[in-house]
Amino acid sequence: MLQKFLKEIVTLIAGKPAEEIVDLLDGNKYVNEFILAKKLNLTINQTRNILYKISDQGLVSFIRKKDKRKGWYTYFWKIEIFKSLEFLRNSLMKKMEQINYQIKSRETKEFYVCPNCNIEFSEESALIHNFTCNECGNIVSRKDNMSTIKEYNKELDKFKKELDLIDEELKIEKEKLEKIKTRESKKEEKLNNKEKERKKLERSKKSADKKAASKKSAVKSSTSKTKKSPVKVSKKSAIKKKQK
Ligand SMILES: [Zn+2]
Fold first, then answer.
1. Contact, 76 vs 61, CB < 8 A?
2. Distance, CA 119 to ligand 1 centroid (Å)?
3. pTM score, two decimals?
4. CA of 118 to the centre of ligand 1 (A)
5. Sequence-ordered list of residues with C-beta below 8 angstroms from that of 1, at least 6 positions apart, any chain
């Protein structure tokens, strides 16, 4: 069902011939655009044009890698399944809104139709044209609003079913994304803890080094004092001795 929806989306955006790209794109990993072009039997530019159109809607994403030898970039593409489903959902909602609007207008206004050309006229435009078709001149007849409303409701039911199916797929995708998110945040937490542990170790090592260093200098200063003081004393005492 998901593949069918994704094809529907790509057809909406880039046209029916582009839908084949859905079978080649992946939601989890990036695919080389040259491989896409080869498998689609299209040139790289034709392939990119399709991908750019889908990318404009934010429904595919890419990474690029520079070819060290040739110096150009190769793009790798991934389909954004959740966003794509949301896009399809929105376009379906818009269609349903339009149908609802049509149903309301059928319930309150008269419509006319030419039996020849099957062109429809609102009551106002039928009046302006004197109830004749402005294409063929035939007399227009009043449309059976009830049967039109019935048709619209049938269409609406079909869309509602599709909407439910899209919502199911969206739920599945959401759960997948949440799983990935928790996996990533756990990984990050682990890394953070490791970093904290490392910093802690570093700090305790530093303070240990400091302590050792201060002990050393304490020893040094005390030894230098003991060395200096007898000299001083001896100097002073020497002066004292001289004064005497
Ligand atoms: Zn006509």
1. no
2. 7
3. 0.71
4. 7
5. 165, 169
